[in-house]
Amino acid sequence: MQSNKAERLKNARIPNKPLLDEELQRRLPPGQTLTDSFPILHEGKVPEYDLSQWNLRIFGEVEEEHNFSFEQLQAMPITRTVSDIHCVTRWSKFDTPWEGVRFSDLVQQLKIKPEAHYVMIHADPDYETNVALEELMKDDVLLAWNYDGKPLTAKHGWPLRLIVPQFYFWKSAKWIRGIEFMKEDRRGFWENHGFHNIADPFKEERFSSDEYEMPEDEWKYCEAD
Predict the structure, then answer these.
(1) CATH number of the domain that 10 lies in?
(2) ω into 159 cis (within 30 of 0)
């Protein structure tokens, strides 16, 4: 079932777009439609956590492994960003406000080996997604715990999610628990099930090949929040 998700999405009907002014249209990737809601899409059950037991594991190509508590992350320099986000299921949401710690600020706390060029983000439940390290070092990439001035809801990734706004939103993993630094790239969960390895929405890098199809009536926003 999971391996067919890319197949179901490939030929999704593109919804009718409202007329946008030139500046807004420039911000909207091809094949996307703008929404004011915040749709929800994930595999498996929403995890529940006891923050006293929660940690974020740092491992792989680092001189020393770390386990950060939630309190330790919140003690780092806090950054607020406003980003446009784009889901592979064809919705986009503009001007989303996030608060957390920049990935690049977290890296300052680590001793990453020079041969590390890729990162695998590990998340619950049994999810992972891969991103190039240089992409994660951009200023608007966050490990976020707040959205719109409030703590993340459980369905949106509480207590911690990644925000990588330059890529389709499956790269912005919810419920993250580990960050693995790697010498070589390795495909994550959806990347192994037909989704594109890079996922640039402005290049429509949705799928790994042109073979995937999806009936028109399969397209949907999913659950909105």
Answers:
(1) 3.90.420.10
(2) yes
Number of domains into which the chain is organized: 1
Cα 221 to Cα 41: distance, rounded to the nearest angstrom: 8
> Which tens digits make up the pLDDT trace of 17-68?
556 788 889 999 999 999 999 988 766 789 999 999 999 999 999 999 999 9
Could you read off the pLDDT of 119-164 as tens digits, one per residue? Answer: 999 999 999 999 999 999 999 999 999 999 999 999 999 999 999 9
Report the distance separating Cα 195 and Cα 206, nearest Å.
6
Q: Are 146 and 98 in contact (CB under 8 A)?
A: yes
∠ CA(216), CA(19), CA(35), 5° rounding? 60
Judge contact between 33 and 91, C-beta under 8 A: yes
From residue 89, how far is each of 6, 12, 13, 25, 127 by CA, in Å? 10, 8, 10, 18, 18
Amino acid at 96: T
Residue type, 24: L
Length of the chain: 225
**Burial code of 181-190, b = ≥16 C-beta within 10 A, e = fewer?**
bbeeeeebbb
Q: Which domain holds residue 95?
A: 2-224
**Rounded Cα distance, 200 and 96, in Å:** 18
Cβ distance 100 to 221 under 8 Å?
Answer: no
